[in-house]
Write a structure and sequence with these properties.
The radius of gyration is 17 Å and the shape is globular. The chain is mostly helical. The longest helix is centred in the middle third of the chain and has 33 residues.
Length: 193
């Protein structure tokens, strides 16, 4: 069984790509949840409860997006949905990484919630399609590892990056990755016509 899953990963770039997006998403969320609080408290003097409001805003907009945006997003091409998600996540990361300011923290938290919601809805639809193509057991088993692995690695690497380069550096790196992903999706959409 494990051999079949490894073979499926080797043979199907669409599964690997979807897993990588989910991995990055959870990595960014883990980094945000830990280091947005620290940034807000240390750099802007927010109290811990007030800083925790950033996580509440992010989480509330994530849940709202899951409940309210599915039908609207379904009308968009998958590349357009990913482009929207990556642009929102790039915005959040840039707001936190390049000269953060107090109102930008709240705007960034909102962008993170919306972006993670759009990405999650898009990836869930894609995972469902991949399960139909390759089998639920094979796809479900192996792809369920991407999110938790991204979350753990996001917190661990985030600690190393922030300790060596500062908290903003982690957000700057995420912003660059998300901009690159957004440009790639925009290019695919433009070629599609």
């Amino acid at each position: 069984r494990m051999g079949q899953q490894i073979e499926m990963l080797r043979a199907h770039a669409d599964v690997r790509q979807t897993m990588a997006i989910d991995f990055l998403n959870q990595m960014a969320v883990a980094y945000f949840v830990v280091f947005a609080l620290i940034l807000a408290v240390q750099r802007f003097g927010l109290g811990v409860q007030q800083a925790a409001g950033l996580i509440t805003v992010q989480g509330a907009l994530f849940v709202l997006t899951l409940f309210a945006a599915g039908a609207w997003l379904e009308r968009l091409h998958e590349d357009a949905r990913y482009l929207l998600a990556f642009a929102l996540l790039a915005l959040q990361s840039a707001l936190y990484g390049f000269g953060p300011w107090p109102a930008g923290l709240w705007l960034g938290a909102a962008a993170m919630g919306l972006g993670v919601g759009v990405q999650s809805l898009t990836s869930v639809n894609r995972f469902a399609r991949l399960m139909q193509l390759y089998g639920r057991g094979l796809v479900g088993g192996v792809t369920s590892l991407a999110g938790p692995a991204g979350g753990v690695l996001g917190a661990m690497l985030g600690g190393l990056v922030s300790q060596r380069l500062g908290i903003e550096a982690g957000f700057q790196l995420l912003a660059l990755v998300y901009v690159a992903l957004a440009v790639q999706r925009a290019w695919r959409l433009a070629r599609r016509g």
